[in-house]
């Protein structure tokens, strides 16, 4: 391995100098991950692992510095290493966007084109799995992570890869993934490119965005000619994204809400507190996906996130079932809004109901009808079908009934015929 290649690598992929990490995997492949390289690992009476204690609690940690020997080992394929991009002063020498999932190739090209528009040279590296990539942007000097992340987030938004409420499934995260160190760790880790073993499978190598993401013939020639972005240029770009005049919401401005097949919330003047409330309650991770992925199980067909927020250029769209929670939050936080009810109300149907309800059934029906929406929960034999039919009769509107079993379906047909005097062919 030539010293020139090691120097090129060392000059580009710079993170914390006092600590880096090595990839590990159990023999049965049941678990894997990265752990900081410690010079005291497995030393008798020193290493916490020998005492069945956790490394994060160790008082004897002596982390190795990422030097030329480790770089050569990584490039030759002897080991797999990763670095921590976020430095002690909350700056970094690069930023990288991580894409994986089914459409990673399409989305990283959208990202590349948008970066090109802003004169940000971007270098695309296929990940070790071969099922994703990193888009790297290198800086001439270390630059505040909060600013570089702000720039890239704005570019991702402009490319319609993310917005305030959701992101494309292929976009995963940024490296660094936080603006500031919390003091409890080293920040997130990024796996290094050009790993010797992975390269044999054409992974961890850089791809040509102008040629259908085919691998560059000469990887080192590309890295030798990397264009780093100057920090004064980054400052100007940061100012452009953050100092442009934006509409300011005055107390007179109201959020517009349309109540239709969904709840439509106008995007103008959305306060941050409302954005966070909607994201916290309507976009959340699927615990089944996380558990299966952690255990190394197949996650095909398992959603990574439950996303109940839809978005277009004009509106945020959320489920109608969240209406009461939304109104309560707006009123509690004194957020002004205008509400337009555009639900279709059809011509009333006069049902001839012969339902005779018990007192507890009548109370349940009255409580349900007093609410805009809800779910009636009752034990078997309580008469849920009869109560449902009575609510249909009192609402006097066409109704949709969903049944998960043929037996339940037939029961509804029979009860409707009997209690509403409607023939089967008219149901």
From TrEMBL:
Residue span(s) of domain TOTE conflict system primase: 4-235
Superkingdom as given in the UniProt entry: Bacteria
Keywords per UniProt: ATP-binding, Helicase, Hydrolase, Nucleotide-binding
GO MF assignments: ATP binding; DNA binding; helicase activity; hydrolase activity
Name the UniProt record assigns to this protein: Uncharacterized protein
Native source organism of the sequence: Candidatus Falkowbacteria bacterium RBG_13_39_14
Domain Helicase/UvrB N-terminal as annotated: residue spans: 355-422
InterPro entries from the UniProt entry: ATP-dep_DNA_Helicase (IPR050615), Helicase/UvrB_N (IPR006935), P-loop_NTPase (IPR027417), TOTE_primase (IPR054347)
């Amino acid at each position: 391995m030539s010293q020139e290649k090691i120097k090129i690598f060392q000059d580009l992929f710079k993170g914390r100098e006092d600590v880096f990490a090595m990839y590990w995997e159990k023999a049965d492949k049941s678990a894997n991950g990265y752990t900081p390289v410690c010079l005291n690992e497995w030393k008798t009476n020193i290493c916490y692992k020998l005492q069945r204690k956790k490394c994060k609690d160790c008082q004897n940690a002596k982390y190795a510095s990422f030097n030329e020997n480790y770089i050569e080992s990584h490039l030759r394929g002897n080991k797999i290493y990763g670095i921590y991009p976020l430095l002690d002063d909350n700056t970094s020498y690069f930023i990288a966007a991580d894409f994986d999932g089914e459409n990673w190739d399409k989305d990283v090209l959208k990202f590349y084109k948008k970066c090109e528009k802003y004169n940000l040279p971007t270098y695309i590296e296929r990940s070790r799995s071969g099922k994703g990539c990193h888009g790297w942007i290198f800086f001439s000097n270390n630059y505040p992570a909060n600013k570089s992340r702000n720039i890239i987030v704005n570019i991702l938004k402009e490319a319609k890869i993310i917005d305030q409420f959701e992101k494309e499934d292929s976009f995963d995260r940024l490296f660094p993934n936080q603006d500031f160190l919390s003091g409890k760790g080293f920040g997130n880790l990024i796996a290094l490119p050009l790993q010797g073993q992975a390269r044999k499978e054409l992974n961890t190598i850089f791809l040509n965005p102008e040629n259908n993401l085919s691998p560059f013939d000469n990887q080192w020639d590309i890295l030798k000619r990397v264009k780093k972005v100057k920090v004064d240029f980054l400052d100007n770009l940061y100012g452009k994204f953050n100092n442009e005049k934006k509409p300011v919401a005055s107390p007179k401005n109201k959020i517009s809400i349309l109540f239709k097949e969904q709840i439509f919330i106008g995007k103008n003047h959305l306060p941050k507190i409302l954005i966070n409330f909607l994201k916290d309650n309507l976009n959340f991770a699927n615990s089944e996906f996380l558990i299966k992925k952690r255990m190394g199980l197949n996650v095909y067909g398992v959603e990574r996130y439950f996303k109940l927020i839809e978005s277009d250029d004009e509106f945020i769209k959320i489920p109608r079932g969240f209406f009461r929670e939304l109104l309560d939050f707006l009123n509690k936080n004194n957020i002004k809004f205008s509400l337009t009810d555009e639900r279709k109300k059809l011509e009333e149907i006069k049902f001839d109901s012969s339902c005779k309800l018990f007192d507890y059934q009548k109370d349940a029906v009255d409580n349900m009808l007093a609410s805009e929406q809800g779910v009636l929960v009752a034990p078997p034999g309580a008469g849920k079908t009869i109560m449902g039919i009575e609510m249909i009769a009192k609402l006097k509107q066409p109704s949709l009934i969903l049944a998960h079993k043929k037996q339940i379906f037939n029961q509804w047909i029979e009860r409707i015929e009997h209690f509403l005097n409607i023939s089967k062919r008219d149901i």
